[in-house]
Amino acid sequence: MRFEHDFSDLLNKTAKVYRKSQSNVNEFGEKSFSLSVIINNLKCTMQPSREELTFTLHGTTYVVREVVYCEYRTDIQPGDYIEIDSKKYLIVSVLDDGGQQYHLKLFVTRAG
User: Fold this and answer.
1) In three state form, how does the secondary structure of 1-34 look?
2) How far apart are the C-alpha atoms of 39 and 57, rounded to whole Å?
3) Which end of the chain is more exposed for a tag (fewer CB within 10 A), N or C?
4) How much is the pLDDT for 4?
């Protein structure tokens, strides 16, 4: 028996993607950031990773236990945040899964 699905049929969640924007530097030289929405309605699906992976982003090592799949886009980058079901996750790596510009595999870790 053969099942045929369009990739978009598997995307059962809607997410928002945020990007940091620098807003202030205090008297100690510490930067504060705000998050701005760059994508409002991203169709995606989230799954646990089959293995525990580590990624280093901006000098910090993160453990990834969840993966998000979404349609291919060029405006999602490591360091962005994705909000799914009212929970925010840091995107630590973005992979053009299969190299065909068909869909992205986002490696994420829980933020906050």
Assistant:
1) CCCCCCHHHHCCEEEEEEEEEEEEECCCCCEEEE
2) 22
3) N
4) 54
